Amino acid sequence: MNNTAAHGVNIVAIGGGTGLSTMLRGLKTYSPNITAIVTVADDGGGSGVLRAELGMPPPGDIRNCIEALANTEATMEKLLSYRFTEGQLKGQSFGNLFLAALNGMSDTFDTAVSKMSEVLAITGRVLPVTNESVYITAKFDDGSSVVGESTISAFKRGSDKRIVSVDLMPKSPPALPDAIEAIDRADLILLGPGSLYTSIIPNLLTDGIVRAISRSRAIKIYVLNIMTQDGETEGCTASDHISAIFNAAGEQIFDICLANSTEIPGIFLERYAAEGTAPVIVDTEKLDEMGISLYRLPVASWSTGKVRHDSAALSREVFKLYRDLSHTRIY
Predict the structure, then answer these.
(1) Does a structural domain hold residue 321?
(2) Are 282 and 259 in contact (CB under 8 A)?
(3) How far apart are CA 218 and CA 183, in angstroms?
(4) Would strands 34-38 and 11-15 be described as parallel, antiparallel, or unpaired?
(5) Is the pLDDT of residue 2 over 60?
(6) Which end of the chain has fewer CB atoms < 10 Å from its terminal CB, N or C?
């Protein structure tokens, strides 16, 4: 399918982390009408430092998505991703500081994000899911709980604990009105890929997002992670991922799942196994019982040394699927 075949399609992609930004890099070659709705619950790394010192929402995931959609020269791209290597700014990225400065000049965080997007002439829009300052809380099957995205993985890692649920603190912060409006206009809604409990589900816990997805007549696709994630989803199958999303949402908000079909080379499987992770098992029968239409497509890459979604392949398969489903859907 050529790039003009999907021109004009209104796309909403919901998530966070590297998974969402990877997908956005490919999506922008197919349609200019993209809205990325991004979680703002991170409290670790450089984002956590700026959040603690400046009282602003964490910029990291937002910055990654803006960079993915930016139409800039190579030098500017390198500048935005540059991380200081020493001094008090060690580990901090220039892009984070740029967004922090714009936030200081703006009345709201989403205004700062909009200004950065304008400066970089991005394709589409990037929106924080909420302007509120929120933290993730996680409950485990042994009755224990923890607060803060940055502590969840370390708390769980190396144990048999399983995350039962996550919530936001404060509960049910209001979703950004522009995010709701974008979902209402969408032809295609994509959820994931990304960290299940810390990048995807937090978006659904903001007040208004689930209702908007539920009433939307868009085609809704969940992009399943290729690998389980150490500290979050070890041992979780495809149906486990989807059940966690439906439980958080309180209802079934999609019925289509796109999963990887590319076989991962053994050398990578061994490396990941040593870290306690493995390809997500796609339990087809269980998905069928849940009413999920499964599409297994070749979307994986390991060219960087890590198993990731290939942005070009994923966007190509997403739009092929969208085209086919659009032609067969009965409203």
Answers:
(1) yes
(2) yes
(3) 9
(4) parallel
(5) no
(6) C
Residue 265 is assigned to a structural domain of this protein: yes
Domain that holds residue 110: 42-128
Q: What b/e sequence results for 67-81 when a residue is b if at least 16 CB atoms lie within 10 Å of its CB, and e otherwise?
A: bbbbeeeeeeeeebe
Q: Identify which of 93, 94, 109, 95 has the alpha carbon closest to the alpha carbon of residue 54.
A: 109
| Whether residue 300 is found in the same domain as residue 277 | yes
Q: Which of 147-161, 164-178, 280-294, 297-311 has the lowest mean pLDDT?
A: 147-161
Same domain, 179 and 309: yes
* 115 shares its domain with 8: no
pTM above 0.90, yes or no: yes
Reported as a single tens digit per residue, the pLDDT across 226-276 is 999 998 999 999 999 999 999 999 999 999 999 999 999 999 999 999 988
Give the pLDDT mean for 166-172: 96
Contact assessment for residue 15 and residue 193, using Cβ atoms and an 8 Å cutoff: yes
For the chain, how big is the Rg over CA atoms in Å?
A: 19
pLDDT confidence tier of residue 6, bands split at 50, 70 and 90? low
Domain count, the chain: 2
Q: What CATH number corresponds to the domain at position 214?
A: 3.40.50.10680
Q: Do 315 and 287 share a structural domain?
A: yes
What gap in Å lies between CA 284 and CA 224, rounded to an integer? Answer: 13
Last residue of a domain, one of 75, 95, 128: 128
Give the pair of three-digit tokens for residue 219. 């085609």
